[in-house]
Design a protein that fits this description.
Blueprint lengths: L12 H25 L6 E5 L5 H10 L4 E6 L2 H11 L5 E5 L11 E7 L8 H9 L2 E13 L10 H16 L6 H11 L6 E5 L2 E3 L5 H17 L5 H4 L1 H14 L3 E3 L2 E8 L2
Parallel strand pairs: 1-2, 1-4, 2-3, 4-5
Antiparallel strand pairs: 5-9, 6-9, 7-8
Bound molecules: S-adenosylmethionine (SAM).
The site of S-adenosylmethionine (SAM) has 23 residues, from helix 1 and helix 2.
């Protein structure tokens, strides 16, 4: 049975460092999306599912000292970590909130989010709820993964195993693996204007193959996989996995594609 609205990637220090590693690759794409969408000086921005606060920090850079960012997450541990990291940023405020019941008594110039809607059981219902928190003329800016494309230019045994493990596990717990490419439909279903779309992804071969990104996702899932008796860290050889995956690609002169990151943004009436 699918577990609705459960975040399985962990709620601890290790999840924080996982998000930090992921952000190194994703932040430039998110920054570009925010700029293209029109996040700019002086705006008030809501960052949903802030995690370690990386997207909030990007928004804060763009809105500057006269703007404000409210960063929400339902996980108090994530918020503590984000406050530790970003507490010195006067323009960012943090608050605990569950998006599925979000009801704030204020409206924002923009709402941003990355890799969050994929974790809620109904992204459309959350978008509808968020819509009520945007002022007329406000911006909705979402950045979500599509994990289901072919990852490697040549199929190899270890890559096939890791891909199947990640996709089947996410699928079985109700994570929306294809939300990136489904964002357009989700915006429409939520009664939002047709969004502009962007697409970006980490890509490379040899020493630049972004193998680490996928291993990072698997590492986040490991506590759940172990608990379910699916695989252990030792069985999968997590410590040497990045190197073995990269070697496998190298032997085939193959290239690797990281998760496709779809951006979707629109201005509401
Ligand atoms: C993959 S992390 C992404 C964090 C951050 N947006 C980033 O890109 O670095 C997803 C975050 O969404 C939060 N989250 C998941 N479901 C949520 C919900 N229903 N309400 C609020 N936060 C939620 C999780 O606690 C987690 O911190």
């Amino acid at each position: 049975m699918k577990e609705q609205n459960r975040y399985v990637l962990g709620e601890s220090e290790s999840e924080h460092s996982r998000l930090r590693d992921q952000s190194v690759v994703l932040d430039p794409l998110t920054r570009q999306l925010h700029i293209e969408a029109g996040i700019t000086a002086g705006m008030s921005v809501l960052d949903i599912g802030t995690g370690a606060g990386h997207v909030a920090a990007i928004a804060a850079d763009l809105v500057g000292p006269h703007g404000q960012v409210l960063a929400v997450d339902r996980n108090p541990e994530a918020l503590d970590g984000a406050r530790d990291r970003l507490g010195h940023r006067q323009e960012i405020e943090f608050a605990e909130a569950d998006l599925t019941v979000l009801d704030l008594d204020r409206q924002f110039d923009a709402i941003v989010g990355r890799a969050v809607l994929m974790h809620v059981s109904s992204p459309v219902e959350v978008l509808e709820r968020l819509r009520r928190h945007l002022r007329p003329g406000g911006l909705m800016v979402m950045h979500e993964f599509d994990l289901t494309q072919q990852w490697t230019s040549v199929s190899t045994p270890l890559w096939d195993r890791v891909r199947t493990l990640i996709l089947q596990t996410f699928e079985s717990i109700g994570i929306h693996n294809t939300l990136g490419r489904d964002l357009f439909a989700a915006f429409r279903s939520a009664g939002l204007p047709d969004p502009h779309l962007t697409l970006g992804a980490p890509v490379g071969g040899g020493a630049e193959a972004p193998s680490f990104g996928w291993v990072n996702v698997l590492a986040g899932l490991l506590p759940y996989l172990e608990q379910q008796g699916i695989v252990t860290a030792d069985e999968i050889g997590i410590d040497s996995l990045t190197q073995r995956l990269t070697d496998e690609l190298d032997a085939e002169d193959a290239t690797l594609l990281g998760p496709l990151m779809y951006g979707a943004y629109c201005t509401v009436d």
